[in-house]
Amino acid sequence: MAVEPQPSKHRFPPATSGDERGWVSEGADLEPGTLLLAYRSGLFPMRSPQGQLTWWSPDPRAILPLDGLRVSRSLNRARKKFRTTVDAAFEQVLQGCSDRASGEYVWVTDEVRAAYTQLHELGWAHSVEAWTIGEGEEPELAGGLYGVAIGGLFSGESMFSRRADASKVALVALVELLNAAGGDTAARMIDVQWETPHLASLGAVELPRQEYLRRLGRALEQPHPAWPEPSHGSGEPG
Is the dihedral of CA 137, 147, 65, 175 positive or negative? Predict the structure, then answer.
């Protein structure tokens, strides 16, 4: 069961007040109560290149409907190359998401890892891992993703791959888990924030902000998923 943290001392402007870029406000903190308040309000955090903590509500907003995931033949073949787990290596997934090429924007800083690890320990943030499969070889973390689950909302924060298609395989596993969570499956959704060609190829669609907020309200009414216990305490699949 997810544990409700202390309420945030901050209050955000409404998500509908976002400007043409989606920027809503600046400041606050990354305490668990603040993060949950933001996601429930339709916002998500980012640090600007100058270091300010900013809160966003894009218009349009990109989501992945659970019935909209596109699984190609090549992705189906790739699934046979990996084993997936849930919450078996949360901190390793955050580290993988923080590894970026020189010059790329890095959101998953030490501060962010600490904040989302707190949410993970409270039962709100989760990871899905994809591990290599090979006879006589130790499994290696090939890719994964993490995000925040509140009712029927899964707010995807970041994903990474060290092997081709590994993060996509983790995404397929996430969709299967959410589809099995009960309640109104059609009301569940994965928030991916902004659409990219990569996400669009997997089935992500854009919604007007008002439509996103309407669907968010329905999603938050759904039962919280029953996340499986980690398969191995050492951070590798058992």
Answer: positive
- The DSSP-derived string for 149-162 is EETTEEEEEEEEES
What count of other Cβ atoms lies within 10 Å of the Cβ of residue 66? 21
Structure tokens at 63: 């989501």
Beta-bridge partners for 106: none
Q: What is the pLDDT of residues 13-71, one digit of tens each?
A: 999 999 999 999 999 999 999 999 999 999 999 988 788 999 999 999 999 999 999 99
Using a 10 angstrom Cβ sphere, with 0-12 exposed, 13-18 middle and 19 or more buried, the burial of residue 137 is exposed
d(CA 42, CA 209): 9
pTM: 0.93
**Which token pair is 124?**
């709100």
